[in-house]
Write a structure and sequence with these properties.
about 120 residues; about 75% helix; about 0% strand
Length: about 120
């Protein structure tokens, strides 16, 4: 059940436009922040782009954006059964709720990790 739910979540989110939009936003925001003089996420002036302070500041700012990303994917996973009224039917069957919920969580976690991997 765990792998079936993991595969379902993976297929569900990779077919959603929000997956691609957030992936490209994360990629292009950090990409243009490093190559452009007009967009400065980490440091400026005499601070090097690949200096430790600039990298830490960029990671801090991207971490703030990442909170909204995690909510986008994980919250929809957590509430999808309740909004579609599937939970009553699902929990009346003899399945293990731990493997079911863990598969859903790991699927959404893998999607979030994939989006984070788009950050150069």
């Amino acid at each position: 059940m765990l792998m079936k739910m993991f595969a379902f979540e993976w297929r569900y989110f990779t077919r959603q436009p929000s997956f691609y939009v957030t992936s490209f936003i994360f990629f292009f925001l950090t990409f243009f922040a490093t190559i452009s003089e007009n967009i400065q996420l980490g440091g400026g002036g005499n601070v090097l782009y690949n200096g430790p302070f600039a990298i830490a500041q960029t990671l801090l700012i991207m971490g703030l954006f990442a909170m909204f990303l995690v909510v986008n994917f994980v919250a929809s996973t957590a509430t999808r059964n309740e909004t579609s009224k599937m939970s009553e039917l699902l929990y009346s069957k003899p399945i293990n709720p731990l493997s079911y919920q863990l598969g859903r969580f790991l699927g959404s976690f893998a999607i979030v990790a994939t989006v984070f991997a788009f950050v150069p």
